[in-house]
Amino acid sequence: MCKENLGENVMEDICSKLQEIKNPIQAIGLLVREMDYETEVEMEKGFNPAQPLNIRMNLSQLYGSNTAACIVCRGVCKIASTRFLICRDLLILQHLLMRLGDAVILGAGQLIQDQQDLLHRTTPLLLSYYLIKWGSQCLATDVPVDTLESNLQHLSVLELTDSGAVMANKFVSSPQTIVELFFQEVARKHIISHLFSQPKAPLSQTGLNWPEMITATTNYLLQLLWPSNPGCLFLECLMGNCQYVQLQDYIQLLRPWCQVNVGSCRFMLGRCYLVTGEGQKALDCFRHAASEVGKEEFLDRLIRSEDGEIVSTPKMQYYDKVLRLLDVVGLPELVIQLASSILTEVGGDWKSQATLRTCIFKHHLDLGHNSQAYEALTQIPDSSRQLDCLRQLVVVLCERSQLQDLVEFPYVNLHNEVVAIIESRARAVDLMTHNYYELLYAFHVFRHNYRKAGTVMFEYGMRLGREVRTLRGLEKQGNCYLAAVNCLRLIRPEYAWIVHPASGAVYDRPGASPKRNHDGECTAAPTNRQIEILELGDLEKECSLARIRLTLAQHDPSAVAVAGSSSAEEMVSLLVQAGLFDTAISLCQTFKLPLTPVFEGLAFKCIKLQLGGEAAHADAWSWLAANQLSSVITTKESSATDEAWRLLSTYLERYKVQNNLYHHCVINKLLSHGVPLPNWLINSYKKVDAAELLRLYLNYDLLEEAVDLVSEYVDAVLGKGHQYFGIEFPLSATAPMVWLPYSSIDQLLQALGENSANSHNIALSQKILDKLEDYQQKVDKATRDLLYRRNL
């Protein structure tokens, strides 16, 4: 009962005081308007050049001190606290007026709508002063240097580092409120600039009036802090100085009632969530902020970019900044999620679609989502971007050794492009470090394109021979040719062939620079290109040649440098030099080459052994062992020289040709070096071509040997030792005709007669003449017997 009586007394007192004011609503309105700092004042003007330099410098030093900042900010705090209480009381008063009604206080004609409008103005005023009071009491946080540097990197992505509101101070004096931080970092420069630009400001007077100056300063600071003003300098300052907790609290206090800078607050709140690791919340904030792009000053400044990609709409420019921010922060999942949601908004804008799908592809690939990356790749509408992404997919999966995925992707409408990319990479990188050729081989085999696979491996083998001059390179070359052969064996015979540039043809590598003449002009491309068709048999020959190269390199490591790209003819010479005669003969038979170099080389080695010392004999056993002799005799009676001659004899017996070419080349090699012919070689050649042996004697002026050969040959024709000359039937009336090399014998007689003073030559000449006379007598007798038999 007492409390009710007290309340009624208070109400009566208020009513009596309000009746003394003719129009209380108008008075309250005037008071509210005076306390409202919502304004459109521009505070970006420069200094007035009319002011003396010393005044400008002194004022800047004055307001740049910690003491001045403390005085101004405490004044703002005091003003905000006092006016907060005033606004609270005014709000209570207005509610009391609403309860009392129009008839009691307001009088006739006063509308209740005025009261409601006044309430709607007073409430934001109360909340605004509360926020300023809260900020004046909230302490700033010391920030580590690495956090500041990370924040600066993020701001550089947003291209906000040139804004004065985001310049972070590494040294924060503590304790310091966030309003003091804002004044020192941002507001002070704007306020001084504004004071100099105002003609009626205290600075324009002759003397500086401190009360007026401090009043103007606090008023301008209140304007910059006022939540309903369009600028976001205070929020930007908190964001730039890494005051994320304070910024979140401020926005949480501001968001329920303030409809100004809604999108900017959402964006900055998203930045806070990114720092605190709440990525999904940050993404939601960024999405909601997108609806305010083009309506707020901060967001307009955010999308304003001097460089960078030009996208179609301001909203897409905003999304581009957000995607780049998420990328720098290291949240690829959120980038994919945001880009996928933006795709529904771009509609038919193919450029934006290409940008977004490229972004989705890149981050799926970074995360190792190979299938999703390929799917995004196939949906890129821009062919050039698609080709770039395809190239990136190939390179990245190769580096990760995820070749199965790379091979098994279907590549619908991209088959030729991916083949061209892999071929280009294969021809541009080191053969022993990267395996692009093997990848391309697997790619074609997976699609049953065996001819292409064989072509790839053949090219791989050719390049290994030219560029990788090591034992490992020769091993891989042999495997490549073997794989190429296997590929062609899987094809029907009529299609078992490949094409490759022939020797001397122009081979253009993708991406290679054009050839130029002396004047720098590009030379014209050749009109006709040579190509060579290789069938299965040709590849089998190359495979055999590759195995022989490896055999040579294993036997003689010094030959590795030249063996890889050597032709079959060159390889025969290298094998002969190394003493691998069996292998050289096998190579000659494979490529249908004459064995002459083999026999000449072996004959020369025999000469060296016969004329050489013990060192030559010691080295000879290694290459002799590499050839398949029927039995190698290593007794004291048998030397390396004997085994070499026996190997030569075996080859001459085994590899016989028409005209006995190999005997001829061996004897010619021996005689050219002045080495006496072994008896076994003379006897062997007498059986096959005694006349040619006689001519060789004459060529090297071996007259005595020639005379002995003629004498033996005549005896053989007459029946004495005919089996040693390969004569089946000697001279007789019933046997087939026989003959003598008269031309060579005449040359021998002429050579002997040239030096008539030499008695030995005369004796040799007489010996031949006697043999010929005896031969003529027996020929006459055989002829008469033959004629007699015919006449019977």
Structure overview:
The chain is mainly α and 792 residues long. The chain has a domain at 3-39 and 52-142. The chain is 68% helix and 1% strand. It is built from 36 helices and two strands. It has helices spanning 2-20, 24-35, 53-64, 66-100, 102-106, 112-137, 145-158, 178-197, 210-225, 233-240, 244-254, 262-275, 279-290, 297-303, 314-329, 332-346, 350-367, 370-378, 383-399, 403-408, 415-428, 436-446, 450-467, 471-489, 536-555, 560-563, 568-578, 581-590, 596-611, 614-625, 640-654, 661-672, 679-699, 703-717, 742-753, 759-791; strands at residues 497-501, 531-535. It is rod-shaped, with a radius of gyration of 54 Å. Residues 1-8, 40-50, 107-111 and 502-512 have low confidence and may be disordered.
Structural class, please? mainly alpha
Q: How much of the sequence is in beta strands? A: under 5%
Low-confidence stretches: 1-8, 40-50, 107-111, 502-512
Can you summarize the main beta sheet? Answer: 2 strands, antiparallel
- Write down the overall mean pLDDT: 83
Estimate the global geometry from the Cα principal axes: rod-shaped
| Helix proportion range | 55-70%
What is the first-to-last residue Cα distance? Answer: 185 Å
Strand order in the sheet with the most strands = 1-2
Separate helix tally: 36
Radius of gyration, whole Å: 54 Å
Counting DSSP E segments of at least 2 residues, the number of strands comes to: 2
GO molecular function: structural constituent of nuclear pore
Domain NUP160 middle TPR: 226-490
Domain NUP160 C-terminal TPR: 535-792
Organism: Enhydra lutris kenyoni (northern sea otter)
